[in-house]
Amino acid sequence: MCFKHDRAVGPLIEFFPRYCIMPAQIISGSETAKAIREEIAAEVARLKTAHGLVPGLVTILVGEDPASQSYVAAKNKTAHALGIHSEQVTLPAATSEAELLGIVADYNRNPAIHGILVQLPLPRHIDEAKVLFAIDPDKDVDGFHPVNVGKMMLGERCFLPCTPHGILELLQRSGTETSGAEVVVVGRSNIVGKPIANLMLQKRAGGNATVTICHTRTRDMAFHTRRADILIVAAGVAKMIKGDQIKEGAVIIDVGVNRIGQTESGKALLAGDVDFDSVVGKAGAITPVPGGVGPMTITMLMKNTLQAAKQAAGIE
Ligand SMILES: NC(=O)C1=CN([C@@H]2O[C@H](COP(=O)(O)OP(=O)(O)OC[C@H]3O[C@@H](n4cnc5c(N)ncnc54)[C@H](OP(=O)(O)O)[C@@H]3O)[C@@H](O)[C@H]2O)C=CC1
Ligand SMILES: Nc1nc(=O)c2c([nH]1)NC[C@@H]1CN(c3ccc(C(=O)N[C@@H](CCC(=O)O)C(=O)O)cc3)C=[N+]21
Predict the structure, then answer these.
(1) Which residue intervals define the domain Tetrahydrofolate dehydrogenase/cyclohydrolase catalytic in the entry (predicted)?
(2) Which residue is closest in CA terms to ligand 2's atom 9?
(3) Deepest in the core among 7, 146, 218, 273, taking most CB within 10 A?
């Protein structure tokens, strides 16, 4: 048989047809997210029955960016489906920083809301850091407040940022061994690259891996990516990683979500940062786009909201 991996990988990984040559396993974020959502929905129902507690989330969107609008809509729809109370605040692009800070302060005081998410990016006239720092760290379900970022660095209990948290879960639930692995991260943003590199490095509740981080000033990126047992790509450049830049059998986590056009019916056509077609015959496993990391990000937001509600109520 032609499979590269005969280790146990769990039921959440789909296999390519058995007849193709050395295909990668497809790590399905959609399937994994579905399983976790069922766990969350059950816990939300239990909280309501046992404690009369309903977790509450507010998403705040400033401006009319279509991608941001669709992400926020997906977050609210998922919250609703899981029994989480969700409110959506949509503000015009011209909203002032003071107005936004006022709205955040109101939600900090609102006892029905346990999680506050301010969708990024914000319009240029608003200081992003100032807004993120204004969110009560106990309601910071995105994990972007410096208190949570610091706790994460120290390996303390905190809200983990949703995308890195989702990647960790995806690796764990697909049976990928991270301990001692060579992990290479492409990208160093505050929301993906830096935190996932940090989590993969952590000894407890982390990846326990050897980590390299690449960015636009990296001299020879292929030198690094070819050494990776696990390659995590979050650069925002469609199809930038090709088959000749990876190691045979590597696990590829493609975080990129790039809009590369439209289908005939007007739906956005998406591509990852990895050139799926040239990598799929060489990798050991790969996350698709769509249906990979994206659904996990949204699911981890729900998980964090549930955690926030329980902490606020002193449960656990
Ligand atoms: N699936 C999901 O849930 C999520 C997906 N995303 C997607 O992930 C991608 C990255 O997002 P985000 O981290 O916010 O992006 P940013 O633009 O904030 O950061 C991109 C990073 O990649 C680096 N980079 C860009 N081009 C190259 C290159 N050619 N070679 C090496 N490094 C490069 C940049 O380096 P430098 O610092 O030197 O500029 C930067 O550190 C996007 O496609 C985004 O849509 C983001 C969040 C969640
Ligand atoms: N405060 C804040 N928190 C975030 O978590 C945050 C943010 N701002 N700004 C933007 C990025 C991006 N992001 C995504 C979430 C889900 C998908 C996702 O579900 N993608 C689907 C496809 C969705 C589609 O069809 O467009 C998929 O990959 O299958 C993608 C990207 C969260 N982000």
Answers:
(1) 27-142
(2) 120
(3) 273
